[in-house]
Amino acid sequence: MLRVNEDCYAVGVTSRIIASELASLQSAKSRRKNAANKASIVLIDRTLDLVGPAGHHGETLADKVISLLPRLPGHSSDVAVNMADLCSKGSQYSQDVVMPGCLAHPRDGFAHSLLNTMITSKQKECLMDINRHLVEAASEEGLPLQLTGRIGRINADTLEGHLKLFKGNRQAFTNHSGLLQIAMATIKTLKHDRYTMMEKLQSIEKMIMLNSGDQDCPSTLSQIKQFMDTENNYDLEDVMLLLVFVYSLEGGDCHEDEDEEREIQKALVQAILTKQELSDNIIYLVGYQPTEDTVRRGIQKFFQKLASLGQTRSHLKQFRSVFESQGFQGGHKSIFKQIIDDIFNPAKPDLMDIEYKSSGLKDLLKSGFGMFMKVSKPRPSDHPLLILYVVGGITCSEVRLIREAVSSYKPNTQVIIGSTSVLKPTDIIHRAFAQDNLFPDEL
Question: Using CA atoms, how far apart are residues 239 and 154, in angstroms rounded to an integer?
Fold first, then answer.
């Protein structure tokens, strides 16, 4: 437990409710009275910017691993790694296995360092770091290591060749268990059936962002329709994620007229009706035995929620847009980057969208009547500790972005990043469109 006296701030409607409850919580008031250290906590609504988690444009290896591998049962921030390839001959992974491999090994210094690299570094650097640790571990155990291939060119086959040296060696496996699980997760990700499609979706998203700033280019929805017409191996949720991506990025500006939206809806209805197997998320929308009528109603409901997602920032003043025009091109400026920039800006601009929640009369006077009392309004950067908490999940690429944004200001403030979970793209479809949010499947 952090024994601090915290100031509560909120960005977004849900965060405002949570911050108000936290500020007035009786047990928290008692803790604040006895706390010697001060801190700030900024709560941020996930729905204000879904471009990051809905997209596939993250540069971190950790995001790709989390996106492609199954969840570790009972966890919201880790994956289950099939380690059967390193076990005795004939071993098979099944859901009945009590402890599959995973990413988090807090008591293993090497594994902890590797996981940090996977979150904060580019993929090429991660692969080189994992390979280096594997080579060092194999040498330490006296395994018959053969270094082949070009220096600096590390791929799944390179890692797999080194990993197989540990097969059947119980002592070596035990000594380097965390490293081997992370290496295996990396190999499974790079060789995953969906990895190529992920890279293709990443290219489409980059093209959409680049073309968004050029009025001579086709509209965003027409580009998605073209993808549906020309690509044969996409999943329905791929298209839905592209739609979430563009509606969160551009709002209602992603199509030229309503006819384009209707064309996409018709194409989705037809695709669902002709699909042999549907995912659980699609079934939630259209029913277990979909008819043309139920599918059409489900897709209409989906687009109504899309329109709402495009309006989640409409009440904001500073952070109303996450679309950044760069000449004839466009780009995404994460709301988290904007918040960090405003908090640590040396000019100390007014924080119109970062709402302070007072916990007592003194704080209320300080925040509400500062102009009359000549007292500066409280800011999240006032204290040596700042907790940035995203309500609804965060991606590893966003953790890296926040880390780099904070480092660029070199503040005298320690920043802790927290969230309810580490997100994969399909989480967005499930949580925003395929569950009863009054009685959610997961928190």
Answer: 32
